[in-house]
Amino acid sequence: MANNQNARRIALNILNDIFGNDAYANISIDRNLKDSDLSELDKSFVTAMVYGVVSKKVLLDWYILPFLKKPAKAWTQNLLRLTVYQVLFMDKVPTSAAVDEAVKIAKHQDGQTTANFVNAILRNFMRSGRSAEVADGPKDWETKYSMPKLLLDKMVRQFGGKRTGEILESLETPSHVSLRKIDPNVEIAGTRPSELTGSALVADHGNFAASQAFKDGKITIQDESSQLVAPQMELEGEEQILDACAAPGGKTTHMATYLTTGHITALDLYEHKLELIKQNAQRQHLADKITTKKLDATQIAESFEEATFDRILVDAPCSGIGLIRRKPDIRYRKESSDFANLQALQLEILHSAAQTLKKNGIMVYSTCTIFDEENFDVVQKFLETHQMFEQVEILHEKPEIITKGCIFITPEMYHTDGFFVAKFRKK
Fold first, then answer.
1. Which pTM value belongs to this model?
2. Looking at residue 248, what DSSP letter applies?
3. 1 falls in which pLDDT band (50, 70, 90)?
4. Closest CA to 204 of 213, 195, 216, 192
5. Could you tell me if 220 and 181 are in contact, meaning their C-beta atoms sit under 8 angstroms apart?
6. What is the rounded end-to-end Cα distance, in angstroms, of the chain?
């Protein structure tokens, strides 16, 4: 059990980092687990606890608040959240173990008085019967789904109440793992074919990045919805392609699998992100088809001649709301001004990239967000200000993922990321 206590202590450190230092959950988890000597099982336990607490923070506070006579210190509050989460939502964790470990951590961190305080709150919570109230929890969505009012209001305005409820409910279920087959004949135990694309395999869970097939470049990890982009580029093999916002390189390497003599120029603002693209390309044996370049995507027109590229992908910086299931901390980072600023940036990148596309060339625009102002509104504004371009209607065998000629997938439809793809041709 000592190691488990260690796991909980590491989980607490990560939560303190996320809520205290505004750290990104995935980065803090990676950093803390890399330096630990936990088993793979315990690492999964830490990850499940952290993402669980982050995605249910407001709900957990709703359960804890009635038992706090005075506000707890920030780290104590995180410890209480961590423990109540295990009690309410982790069936395989014995309640007594979760409570005992919390008391030990409190004592280790701050002495007997704090340990007594934590113990008293958790015992009162258990005795109150509130711990059995998961079914009778709060009715308001802001608390029930720990979703900030700003995002809730935007969802209800765009989707209406019924579909918003379905989206929120679907986000309660963890992501499944999605792989892209690079070797078309590869078979991976524990996976099933995707319903959305022939290139994808899905699994309910599993650490496929540790598999031999991954190391040999026969598979890579990429969400099914994001695998719908490369086929829209209409690649025959010899095209010169610009990937405007390419890191970490999932779509870049997917496009590269279609090429014979063609080549991709992959841009990103940051050196460490370009490094990820290179690593991805090398592992998948595609490095000869991809050149990376450090460049701000709004500066494309200044850096390349007109009519340089046959195909351009603008996988634009966006609010990332479609990724909330995998990155639950995204929800706490959004201001209403973010959306207007992002739309301006998305249009600026499209405008800059458009100037370097050849006549009859294709430009694809994609985002991992579900909000119209970053998706359909951007398409409309781009077409209004660029008469040389026309929208190309996208077709797919699943008609429900097509809206106004674009691919538009919300998280509840196929349990994927939320995703958007639009397609333009230069006349």
1. 0.92
2. T
3. very low
4. 192
5. no
6. 67
